[in-house]
Write a structure and sequence with these properties.
With about 350 residues, the protein is an alpha/beta fold. Helix content is about 45%, strand content about 15%. Bound molecules: pyridoxal-5'-phosphate (PLP). The site of pyridoxal-5'-phosphate has 18 residues, from helix 9 and helix 13. Pyridoxal-5'-phosphate binds next to helix 9 and helix 13.
Length: about 350
């Protein structure tokens, strides 16, 4: 019989702060594919593979952090979880809370959440509150709520989130048989870049890889506090998942960048949307805008002659494109040509 993937906590139990006797709250997250991007590889002169995190149960990498965060919440005996979200954290928290039988409360910035993500939080039964402010302000509110009331905070400032998310780095090394030369990913609140760096370092220390990769982080130009070197007040970008001006994991992300010998740069919304379209049309991988940022960053680095020839470059594409079809379609409409029930008409309309 083929082996069945058991979710990241059971698969990587030796590397996580849990043991066999814990009640593990899992929806089977992780075990996502690493997919070769042929055209992009030949264009940039490197081996480029995308880690498709949109394959997770709720369609984003947030599930890796949520299985471990909610497992700890249950262990602690709490009954309510709270998060601020640009969409995917709330979708994930709502699903894992539903599975564990917990109440989930979510604060989202008004009008800035993709429809699919909001629908997920609603169908999983979360209590959704829109805040007339941005993500950073939502996070301030939920931090205070969790300090004053018996509610567990499951944003990435919760250390169990990063513990779960670091397993994506383990998987990449397991899939390649070695660490890549460079790992790229989008940077918003900066939990994930911090988690990957922790994961790559831990796996190298455990002898599972002989080295650690350079970490190249990519932000959206309108929400690029790391590139500017300071938090910003009114972040703006089409990539709503990284529309963040005051990243919570600032120091950890700077350490990931500097210790790895990498960088964090910004790309325009236009470049993000174009990379999103290329991933869909050339690789067959439909991602949301934020997830395409690393590909846009890679293409820009290649154009500047900065991609080492023949390097192995892995890119985390963080979330599923089905969450936000409106942005991906742009001005294309959903009304393909209609024909009668007739083979000749079908052949004729197809130019056969
Ligand atoms: C959360 C998220 C990000 C940003 O991750 P951070 O850990 O906040 O830097 C990027 N892309 C998607 C799809 C996300 O959901």
């Amino acid at each position: 019989m083929a082996e069945v993937w058991r979710g990241i906590v059971r698969e990587y139990l030796d590397h996580l702060p849990f043991d066999e006797s814990d009640r593990i709250v899992s929806l089977g997250e992780g075990g996502t594919p690493l997919i070769y991007a042929e055209k992009i590889s030949s264009e940039v002169g490197a081996e480029v593979l995308v880690k498709y995190e949109g394959m997770n149960p709720t369609g984003s990498f947030k599930d890796r952090g949520m299985t471990s965060a909610i497992t700890q919440v249950v262990k602690d005996g709490d009954h309510t979880v709270v998060c601020a979200s640009t969409g995917n954290t709330s979708a994930s928290a709502a699903a894992y809370a539903a599975h564990a039988g917990l109440r989930c409360v979510v604060m989202i910035p008004q009008g800035k959440i993709a429809a699919g993500k909001m629908a997920q939080a609603i169908v999983h039964g979360a209590d959704l509150v829109q805040v007339d402010g941005n993500f950073d302000e939502c996070l301030d509110i939920v931090r205070e709520l969790s300090e004053s009331y018996p509610i567990a905070l499951v944003n990435s400032v919760n250390p169990y989130r990063l513990q779960g998310q670091k397993t994506a780095a383990f998987e990449i090394v397991d899939q390649l048989g070695e660490a890549p030369d460079i790992h790229m990913l989008p940077v918003g609140n900066a939990g994930n870049i911090s988690a990957y760096w922790m994961g790559f370092k831990e796996y190298a220390e455990a002898g599972r890889a002989s080295r650690t990769p350079k970490i190249w982080g990519v932000q959206a130009a309108g929400a690029a506090p790391f590139v500017l070197g300071h938090p910003i007040k009114d972040p703006e970008t089409v990539a709503t998942a990284i529309r963040i001006g005051k990243p919570a994991s600032w120091d950890l992300a700077v350490a990931a960048r500097d210790e790895s010998g990498g960088w964090i740069r910004a790309v325009t919304d236009e470049a993000i949307l174009s990379a999103q379209a290329r991933l869909a049309a050339e690789v067959g991988v439909f991602v949301e805008p934020a997830s395409a940022a690393p590909i846009a960053g890679l293409l820009a680095a290649a154009a500047a002659g900065e991609v080492p020839r023949g390097a192995t470059i892995t890119c985390t594409v963080t979330g599923n494109g089905l969450k936000d079809t409106a942005t991906a379609l742009g001005d294309r409409t959903l009304d393909p040509t209609v024909i009668p029930v007739d083979v000749e008409a079908a052949a004729s309309v197809l130019g056969l």
